[in-house]
Amino acid sequence: MPLTSEQRSHLEKRLKEERALALELIHRNTDELAGNADQDQSGSTSRVPFHPADLGTDTIDEEIQAANATRVSGELAEIDAALERLYSAPETFGRCEETGRDIPFERLDIIPWARTCGT
User: Which of 17, 52, 98, 110 makes a 20 to 30 Å CA pair with 9?
Assistant: First the structure.
């Protein structure tokens, strides 16, 4: 059964909430990277590791942060694409791109940018 207008409104709200969270994470990540660069340029030695293992930990932390930023950027793109689908063709929003069946509302409530029914 296609989504009702009430369900579409709810999903639009969820998409906007998820978009705001993603942007907040991206901005926080950018601010942290900028702060680290400022600290490095100032000549501060407070981030200089005292042990070689600390250098490895710092490297892993930076790689995790970069991977998370990539993931969140991808989610943001999916959210924006879902909002575009919702605005341009609201009557077909929530239809599985693989099977053509309706995506269950419960799935869309959890992942409002879902393109498939997950089967």
Answer: 98
